[in-house]
């Protein structure tokens, strides 16, 4: 293997390839993660859900109707079902009803074919990746490129999966341990929208944790009434007891009309990093006038928007377009 001391360390401000480079490849495929790495992302982001036999795989949701060809598999027709998860009722196919071997017979496809028609060229070319495969890719590419490439896993619906006997926390920590990454200085952040999930992880591992937040509602485990409550100085102090940072929505930092909040200062005051989500070329929060859908000619405006947030003091960010995010970070 490569001498770690010869590897370029992580930059101070990190670029997280959201679902890989999901602006350019079907999300949560090894193709998408590889593309993010090739474009210079520091981290690749798998959203994690379990299989029936307890493996961890990367999908944004456990519902896989829109991101795989499962509907075209007659042998799985009777697995179609309706579930209510975290208040949302969904009809379709779900990862927890398939063994890993069964899931591996499916092929991934683009979730947003109208918005990202170019990505459909890769439909059918990739399987659903396991966390093991993603860790192996990050390690292999770190060695090849002589720079540290990390993973930034999110535990999805952790209370729900615990309630059906497939808790995510122990499985994730076991995988990190096996990879030699169950350490405070590992190139890993674990993120979750749920508070109790992160508190549980805090008791199990030294890996840095990120509390995700959204502009509205509250965490699914009802630990707080709202994420707004969590974003107050008192709420942030409570988060700092178990987490290294927060993952707010962009609009919690700068409103759509351009008004900055005090969140960056308040989070930094209690030692929390800020890694907001999600910069994508198809939604310009600050500059709706430049919201241009799929026209690559105006994607450059995304760099301006990222620059505005970098000036506001963020410590890293999630983006579907590392092709834009990495140069924006490098020129800051
Ligand atoms: O993890 C940050 C961001 O990804 C949270 O939203 O829905 O894209 O997983 P989501
Ligand atoms: Ca995520």
Provide a descriptive summary of the structure in words.
The protein is α/β, with parallel strands linked by helices and 332 residues long. The chain has one domain: TIM Barrel (Alpha-Beta Barrel). It contains twelve helices and 13 strands. The chain has helices at residues 30-38, 100-103, 131-145, 158-163, 169-178, 195-204, 227-230, 233-240, 250-253, 263-269, 300-312, 322-330; strands spanning 14-18, 43-45, 47-50, 56-58, 81-85, 88-92, 150-151, 154-155, 190-192, 209-212, 245-247, 273-274, 316-319. The strands form four sheets. It has a four-stranded parallel β-sheet with strand order 7-2-1-13, with helices on one face. It has a four-stranded parallel β-sheet with strand order 9-10-11-12, with helices on one face. Strands 4-3-8 form a three-stranded mixed β-sheet, covered by helices on one side. The mean pLDDT is 93. SN-glycerol-3-phosphate (G3P) binds at residues 18, 47, 60, 154, 191, 212, 247, 277-278, 318. InterPro entries: GP_PDE_dom, PLC-like_Pdiesterase_TIM-brl. Belongs to the glycerophosphoryl diester phosphodiesterase family. Residues 13-329 form the GP-PDE domain. Its EC number is 3.1.4.46. This is glycerophosphodiester phosphodiesterase.
């Amino acid at each position: 293997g490569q001498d770690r001391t010869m590897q370029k360390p992580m930059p101070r401000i990190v670029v997280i390839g959201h679902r890989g480079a999901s602006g350019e490849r079907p999300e949560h495929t090894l193709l998408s993660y590889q593309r993010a790495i090739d474009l210079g992302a520091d981290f690749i982001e798998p959203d994690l859900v379990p299989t029936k036999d307890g493996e961890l795989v990367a999908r944004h949701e456990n519902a896989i109707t829109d991101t795989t060809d499962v509907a075209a598999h007659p042998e799985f027709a009777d697995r179609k079902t309706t579930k209510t998860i975290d208040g949302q009722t969904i009809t379709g196919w779900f990862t927890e009803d398939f063994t890993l071997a069964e899931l591996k017979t499916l092929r991934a496809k683009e979730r947003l074919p109208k918005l990202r028609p170019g990505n459909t060229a890769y439909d059918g070319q990739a399987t659903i990746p396991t966390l093991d495969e993603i860790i192996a890719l990050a390690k292999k590419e770190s060695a090849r490129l002589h720079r540290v490439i990390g993973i930034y896993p999110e535990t999805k619906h952790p209370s729900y999966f615990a309630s059906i006997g497939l808790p995510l926390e122990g499985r994730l920590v076991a995988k990190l341990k096996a990879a030699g990454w169950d350490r405070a200085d590992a190139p890993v952040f674990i993120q979750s929208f749920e508070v109790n999930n992160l508190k549980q992880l805090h008791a199990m591992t030294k890996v840095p944790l990120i509390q995700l937040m959204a502009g509205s509602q509250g965490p699914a485990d009802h630990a707080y009434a709202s994420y707004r409550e969590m974003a107050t100085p008192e709420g942030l102090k409570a988060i700092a007891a178990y987490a290294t940072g927060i993952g707010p929505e962009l609009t919690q930092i700068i409103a759509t009309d351009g008004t900055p909040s005090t969140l960056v200062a308040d989070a930094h005051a209690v030692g929390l990093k800020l890694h907001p989500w999600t910069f994508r070329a198809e939604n310009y929060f600050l500059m709706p006038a430049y919201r241009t859908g799929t026209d690559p000619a105006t994607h450059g405006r995304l760099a301006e928007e990222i620059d505005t947030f970098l000036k506001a003091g963020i410590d890293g960010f999630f983006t579907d377009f590392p092709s834009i995010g990495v140069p924006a970070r490098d020129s800051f």
